[in-house]
TrEMBL record:
Coiled coil: none annotated. SUPFAM superfamilies: L domain-like (SSF52058). This is Receptor L-domain domain-containing protein. It comes from Salpingoeca rosetta (strain ATCC 50818 / BSB-021). The lineage of its organism: Eukaryota, Choanoflagellata, Craspedida, Salpingoecidae, Salpingoeca. Pfam families: LRR_5 (PF13306). Keywords: Leucine-rich repeat, Repeat.
Amino acid sequence: MKVLVLEGGANEDDSGEAQFGGTESVVDAEEYLILEPRPDIDVLDCNSTSSRAAVRAAGFVAVGIVEHCCCNEFFNNVANVTGSVHVADSTTTLRFGNVSSIGGDIVVPGEWWRAGVLESVDFESLRYIGGTVKISSGKLSSIDFSSLTMIGGSIVLPFNDITHVQFGALLRIGGNLLLHDNLLTHVDFARLTSIAGNILLYQNAITALRFGALTHLDGSLYAQSNVLSAVDLQGIQHIQGDFAVYDNVITHIHFAGLTHIGGSVYLGDNALTSLNLSQVTVFRASFFARSNQLTSVLFSDATTIFGELNLADNLLTRLDLSPVSRVGSLNLQNNFLTSLDLSSLTRIDSGVLLSKNRLTDVNFGTITGISNTLDLSHNRFTAINFHRLTFVDFSLCVDHNALAHLDFAGITRVGWALDVSNNNLRTISLANLTVGYNMALNNNMLSVVDFGQMTAARGSLNLAYNALTAVSLTNLRSIATDLDLSHNPLKQLRFANQTRIGGSLHLTNTTLDTLDLSLVTSISSQVSVVRTDLTRVDCMQLGRCICADSSTSLHHCPPRCDVC
């Protein structure tokens, strides 16, 4: 890095051209630093006749700030500005004349809700800007920073019509580079060696990115929603923030010498067919590559993904996760996997989502618990080996498979919902299992359900569309919401203890001919006994409303429901 030191005042040489009258020296340093002279005049207001006259009389000067830029005095009499330049609302062409440095910002009117009118910028002799260049929502079609070597703040140019940006000799941007929502077709970072903030290039028409001399991105790169077909990170060793190139048409991405990514990687909604994570060993956040056409993923040197690994909605038929030993969560939904080996993993911090594949086998290895949801639904399992799993903290979903048998083995706790619906189960034992909320056992062929010592269903209990002929709720004393036994050849329902039903009792389309509710202490919602063999029902003052055939004799029942 270099230091540009400006000392002394300003004057004119014999030819009449403005010259800086002091000394200028450039020395090596770790950071750029501009040591501006004290301003000769505090303010140049281009709308003020007296202010302009004072600057003309002073000759060639340093001013503190410039208001309502621009005017001839700014072009001809100002050597440098120690503060900011505020451009007038009506300015369509912005020039900088003989100004060599600006210590503060360049602020051009225009916001996304109020368009600006600026059409062109010529930096001319300007070498240094200490603050931010802000030209938002204008009419710029191109911009050339070639005269500059450093901008200490951000470049903020969104919502223009820019098709071309040239960085030239610019070496450093001390803040963000915001070029989003323009008409750019390519970006070449040229000689830039440092961009301290985020790079926002989204919502353009970019087909190519060239990183030039950049080796480190100190912030995030967001280049989503362009038309990139390939990304080559050749030369980039370090990305401190996120790397987002989703929603493009990328068929190839080359991580080259990249060894560190501090944020998340977003590669979704592209046309990638393969991925090689190359030399990155640790992903500090998440890795998203969903909605591509991936058939192959090589994790190479990657051992840890602290966030989510999301490869959902691809064409994967097999996946070798080694050498990955830790992920925050895993989402492989909607692929074509037939088996999956998770034995390389020693830690999963959150959920595992594997639905909508063709899985018949998953090896959970040494994993003892899933701290969120385990979703194995919509696969081709006929049996599941849970290996060493002892708990699932949120939902356990094994619905829509071909399960003829289900042994929960060492699993004793499901923190939220259990869904085993839409399988071929004939019997099931919940004897050693506690479930935190809903239990869906519907749409099987169940004739036997063993509740063991379960005393409470903390959500709904859905046993509809099975082959149950008799149900004895031996130890169940509380069902927090609905109890659904509809669409079974049910002849007998026995409440063995005083039982509370916090929702509805559904017995529609059963063959019940008697119903004893004497041990039921409350039913908070609907009682449904439509299309049964019941000729008489004593509701025992339970329920909010009842659905029953017109031929059924009702006693001590609530009013009929408006909707059944």
